[in-house]
Write a structure and sequence with these properties.
About 30% of the residues lie in helices and about 20% in strands. The protein is of the alpha/beta class and about 450 residues long. α6 (about 120-130) crosses α11. The chain is globular. The N and C termini lie far apart (about 50 Å). The model has no long low-confidence stretch (mean pLDDT about 95).
Length: about 450
């Protein structure tokens, strides 16, 4: 309790979702003299400031000041801040909420990363493990800082961490992450506006398994990169596949999700119930990965199937907000890359009224655009990514509606056009900046529009 007492701490990036807020609360509650600094205004950060009203916190907003970093004993950085920042280079010690948590936590860790699917995997895994481990906790990139539940953990409670490439990059060389089970769902082009090249992004992802021991397990996609990861991973590696494959321990056979347990060498076990509450083969695939991780952690196949039968899915990820006059309204705001947008459209067997577009991350839309032929209608929000998407749709002679300066306008047209048995889907395939504070603000805006019908 006295480790941080009277220490001067600067939290760089108070934010609205998780890490900064939790870091300030955790350190201030332990007697640290905390300065929270953020480039955003007090008006934008009002919810976080209100949540910290019971703590003595000094705020420096709308700017960063060098003296708040050179004079601090400890700096907690937001994962989005590059290590090349002159403020960080001038600091004595730099941590993140994740590194701080890992240095203080002795509970078993299950860690998941990947370009897409990781939030569904960790949420499904948490839903399964809660059946026999009521104290199981979920945190990380899913907007819950693990510092917020560190004090509530009991001995043996498993902790599931969703980790982004940035969060993993901040752990390099620290020897802090030693997960019992690590999962790397896939590698796709993402965040290329923040990396020098694609291989730098991939290298950050590898941190998920680098600190494992020979007795721990890793799960990788059965492809060229997955095989390379397995060669580098210190622990026991298992592959998952989207179809039957002798080399895969975790695989789909039609709608069935199967697992060959390498520890028993028995017959393949069926881990998925016949029906899940969220549509689409990608959702089933991600639930199967979570199921296999739970089996490796010691859960029975019966427990896994029973738990997944009532798993509701994940907020903001193909989330059914409501049905109105026979039309389903789905919020998929976290589909921030074109591949995720295409996968969302392919998850439905009915006509889809797709709302998409936003800000570019220097991504390629050419390979994903053909999947949008299946959409019944397309409504494109204004943005830099939207221009790239429209260029690809024109090449394929796919019709679209454009010129939407707000989500309200696109939603109004989509909801008017959709009829019973169809779906209105917001799956942007791009980031939200410019029109919204972040992707969750975008998702909440869609929710409000659907709920107001």
């Amino acid at each position: 309790m006295d480790q941080f007492k009277n220490k001067k701490v600067t939290v760089m990036g108070l934010g609205l979702n998780g890490g900064g807020l939790a870091s300030v609360r955790y350190l201030a509650s332990r007697g640290a003299a905390v300065t929270a600094t953020d480039l955003r205004s007090a008006e934008v950060l009002a919810p976080s400031i209100e949540a910290l009203k019971d703590f003595d916190v000094r705020y420096v907003l709308g700017e960063h000041r060098m003296e708040d970093f050179t004079g601090a004993d400890l700096v907690i950085k937001n994962p989005a801040v590059p290590v090349s920042s002159p403020y960080l280079k001038a600091s004595k010690q730099v941590e993140t909420d994740i590194s701080l948590f890992l240095s203080l936590c002795t509970n078993p860790i299950l860690a998941v990363t990947g370009s897409k699917g990781k939030s569904t995997v960790v949420s499904a895994l948490h839903h399964i493990l809660k059946k026999n481990y009521p104290g199981c906790r979920l945190g990380g990139n899913i907007t819950v800082s693990p510092l917020s539940f560190l004090d509530a953990l009991r001995e043996g409670d498993p902790v599931i961490l969703e980790l982004s490439s940035w969060q993993l990059g901040d752990l390099k060389g620290r020897n802090l992450l030693h997960p019992e089970i690590s999962v790397l769902t896939n590698i796709m082009n993402d965040h290329q506006n923040m990396y020098d090249d694609f291989e730098d992004y991939v290298d950050d992802k590898k941190e998920i398994f680098r600190g494992q021991s020979s007795s721990q397990h890793s799960i990788f996609l059965l492809d060229g990169r997955g095989r390379t990861f397995a060669e580098e991973a210190p622990g026991s590696s298992l592959f998952y596949s989207t179809g039957p494959d002798r080399e895969a321990a975790i695989y789909m056979d039609g709608e069935r999700g199967l697992f060959r347990n390498p520890e028993t060498a028995g017959e393949a076990e069926e881990l998925l119930p016949q029906k899940l509450m969220t549509p689409g083969r990608y959702f089933r695939q991600n639930c199967l990965i979570a199921a296999a991780a739970a089996r490796l952690f010691g859960e029975s196949s019966e427990t896994v199937r029973s738990a997944l039968s009532d798993f509701p899915g994940v907020p903001h990820r193909l989330e059914l907000v409501r049905e109105y006059e026979g039309v389903g309204y789905y919020n998929d705001t976290t589909a921030t890359i074109p591949e995720a947008m295409a996968a969302a459209v392919e998850s439905f067997d009915c006509p889809v009224h797709l709302i998409c577009g936003g800000t570019d991350k220097e991504l390629d839309y050419s390979s994903s655009a053909p999947a949008l032929r299946k959409a019944g209608a397309i409504y494109i929000l204004n943005g830099t990514a939207s221009e790239k998407l429209k260029a690809e749709l024109k090449k394929l002679n796919i019709d679209y509606n454009e010129g939407y300066g707000s989500l309200d306008e696109a939603f109004a047209d989509a909801s008017r056009a959709a009829v019973e048995g169809e779906v209105v889907l917001m799956s942007p395939g791009a980031t939200s900046f410019g029109m919204f504070i972040n992707e969750f603000d975008r998702g909440n805006s869609f929710r409000k529009l659907a709920e107001a019908l």
